[in-house]
Structures are given as C-alpha cells and as structure tokens.
Specification:
By secondary structure, the protein is of the alpha/beta class. The chain has six helices and seven strands; from the N terminus they run E-H-E-H-H-E-E-H-E-E-E-H-H. 41% of the residues lie in helices and 18% in strands. The relative contact order is 0.13.
Length: 170
C-alpha cells in the first residue's frame, strides 16, 4: 500500500516482535502511531523513548484492545493473537477503516507488501497475504538488481520533470 500517513493517526494493536517490525516504518513515514497492548517488547518501548517524537510520534497504551481505540485512526495494524485481530477487524470495519491483520488473512482488509526503497524509488510486492516469505525473497532479489547509479537516475528524472512542468508539457 502506498499511503500518505504523515501527521495521521495509525493504530497498532499488539506490541510483540512482529508489531515492532510494523511500527518502525510507520513512524519513519511520519505517522502518529498509537500502540495498544498489555505487554510491550523492549524494541517498541525504546522507540517511544527515543527519536520517534521528532519523526511522527509514538504513544503506547498498556492495556487490552477496546473497540473505541480505532476511533480517529486513518489506518489500523492488528498484530495480536487471532481473537484480538478479529475484534480489531470488526471495530475497524464498522468505521470503514482498512486493517492489515498480520498473518491473519481472514481478518485483513489490507495487505502490506514487501518493500524495496532506494534513492526515492519504492517498489512494493504482494502475494495477497498468501506467501509473505516469497515476497520477502523477491524483495531481496530486487534489491540486488537495482542499479548503483539509481540516485543519479532519480536526480535526472526530477530535473527533467521540473523543466517539463515549467514548460507546461503534459
């Protein structure tokens, strides 16, 4: 998914190792992330205390999920046990919100792809949630294939586009 999350509230339910892998990219995107979970792994706790306040922000609420937690969120990640993910999905569906329910296809209404980022180029791969390990392997292969001079290609493309826009070229 390509979402503009900067400054927008994102809810992450669950705070284990899998959730930690989801929280970092959301914070890096400038989202205001709220994590709701009774127990929090050290990696997420360290993010709350660290540099995340300068990026988007991270708030941790140490308690079980409540349906009202989804209120005001633009996007929801459910990285909790299946019964909790189902409750999150029901609450989000009632409010027309997409949910990336990690490793829970039944509860998911959105799939997060494997992401390759380099020099302003972003490539996302998806297996519709069916084979995330395969998507990860494909991501690793693409990282190797990207040209070393991609940053120069991007600078050239950026400059050309700026000129075309100034000239009114569609």
């Amino acid at each position: 998914m390509f979402l503009k999350l900067e400054g927008r509230r994102v809810l992450v339910v669950g705070a284990g190792p899998v959730a930690a892998g989801k929280v970092r990219p959301l914070v890096d995107a400038g989202a205001r992330v709220t994590v709701v979970a009774p127990d929090v792994v050290d990696e997420i706790a360290a993010m709350e205390a660290g540099e995340t306040r300068e990026l988007g922000g991270l708030t941790i609420v140490r308690r079980p999920f409540e349906p009202g937690d989804v209120d005001g969120a633009w996007y929801v990640v459910a990285a909790a046990p299946p019964d909790v993910n189902r409750a999150v999905a029901r609450a989000a569906e009632a409010r027309c919100l997409f949910v990336n329910a990690v490793d829970d296809l039944e509860s998911a209404s959105a799939y997060a792809g494997a992401i390759v980022q380099n020099a302003g180029v972003t490539i996302a791969l998806s297996t519709d949630g069916e084979a995330p390990a395969l998507a990860g392997l494909m991501r690793e292969a693409l990282e190797v294939l990207l040209p070393e001079e991609l940053d120069r290609w991007m600078a050239c493309a950026h400059e050309a586009r700026r000129g075309w826009l100034a000239q009114g070229v569609p």
